[in-house]
Amino acid sequence: MSFNPADNIQDLQYFGEFGGVNPSISDSSTYTFLSAKTMFDTFEGNADGCYLYSRHSTPSNLYLGKALAAMEGTETANVAASGMGAITPVLLQICGTGDHIVSSRTIYGGTYAFLKNFTPRLGIKTTFVDITKLDVVEAAITKNTKILYCESVSNPLLEVADIKGLSALAKKYNLKLVVDNTFSPLSISPAKLGADVVCHSLTKFINGSSDTVGGVVCGTQDFINELRSVNDGASMLLGSTMDSLRASSILKNLRTLHIRMKQHSFNAAYLADKFQADGLITVYPGLESHPSHQLFKSMMNAEYGFGGMLTIDAGSLEKANELMELMQHKNLGYLAVSLGFYKTLFSAPGSSTSSEIPVEEQKEMGLTDGLIRFSIGLDNDIARTYQIMKACMIEVGVLKK
Ligand SMILES: *Cc1c(COP(=O)(O)O)cnc(C)c1O
């Protein structure tokens, strides 16, 4: 049987302590022990099934982690209070002073800032590369390199990483391949393609209702144990723990992710096709014009589509801003950062989510002033939405009549 992430989530079965169809929410920061000996063993990490203190783990967090591990096909997972709260401990767990990271240069602004500005203070250096060129990636690897870091589909340029190719490099040089899969849940299963660690910001598509931040690290039991170690685990000691109430609400939203992703992908594919036909510079991995269209196709779980993210170039920041304000006025979506909401969200990354990246570097990677990033919503009638969007584009002069 082939791997299907949504079926794996559906196949899990758990009940609440009173037979509720949802697991009960654990509402405690600390846990009692029947014997002092068990408490000691739990501290030593030798008492499976015992809870100690909720920064370490909680039943609710373990349920959510289990479902996300099933989705990614990894042994286990650890949830965190935010995407950054998941990603940064992974990097700090694997790397120490003197170590080196090779990272894609087109990544989430916060991760970029962490690697560019923060980790050098700890003596960890990062080389940023064009992740789509495996020879360039390989040339950047040094004897101190510990991690290859990328996003399956990158923010905001929607570049696609060759995860199998990167995994082969990681194996050759004994590195860990860490992949942020926030933009392509269900569509791409990085661990199945050879990634060692898969991270998500749950804030985006997975939770899907823009009401919380959250994150997860999916990986081997050994690696997750390391992150959670009371002695030297970065997740445990840096303390970005998710609250149980949030874990239970994200778990409930996760169960409709497959339905939502299909609709996000359907709507984004429809708009991308139309925008391109109208003559706009449109980037969407589902378009044959996308440089990595075939690569995405070769990696994807086809039924979930090419995802809900697309970009267009409005020509200038002024035009982009004018268009976004008008689209919001017409209630086509919101001028907001983030992604994965039921409404379409749009922003100009150069002056917002990627503003951590110096303007010179933005130019070099092809991040233009007029770029608008869309997270396409769950619109029931996308053809109707398109007609109104097109009228907006004509009104501000991004499209000719
Ligand atoms: C939002 C985002 C993050 C950070 O997640 P938070 O939940 O905001 O901490 C990391 N990576 C990607 C690709 C994102 O879109």
From TrEMBL:
<dbReference type="GO" id="GO:0030170">
    <property type="term" value="F:pyridoxal phosphate binding"/>
</dbReference>
<dbReference type="InterPro" id="IPR000277">
    <property type="entry name" value="Cys/Met-Metab_PyrdxlP-dep_enz"/>
</dbReference>
<dbReference type="InterPro" id="IPR015424">
    <property type="entry name" value="PyrdxlP-dep_Trfase"/>
</dbReference>
<dbReference type="GO" id="GO:0005737">
    <property type="term" value="C:cytoplasm"/>
</dbReference>
<dbReference type="GO" id="GO:0016846">
    <property type="term" value="F:carbon-sulfur lyase activity"/>
</dbReference>
<keyword id="KW-0663">Pyridoxal phosphate</keyword>
<comment type="similarity">
    <text>Belongs to the trans-sulfuration enzymes family.</text>
</comment>
<dbReference type="Pfam" id="PF01053">
    <property type="entry name" value="Cys_Met_Meta_PP"/>
</dbReference>
<keyword id="KW-0456">Lyase</keyword>
<protein>
    <submittedName>
        <fullName>Cystathionine beta-lyase</fullName>
    </submittedName>
</protein>
<dbReference type="GO" id="GO:0019346">
    <property type="term" value="P:transsulfuration"/>
</dbReference>
<dbReference type="InterPro" id="IPR015422">
    <property type="entry name" value="PyrdxlP-dep_Trfase_small"/>
</dbReference>
<feature type="modified residue" description="N6-(pyridoxal phosphate)lysine">
    <location>
        <position position="204"/>
    </location>
</feature>
<dbReference type="InterPro" id="IPR015421">
    <property type="entry name" value="PyrdxlP-dep_Trfase_major"/>
</dbReference>
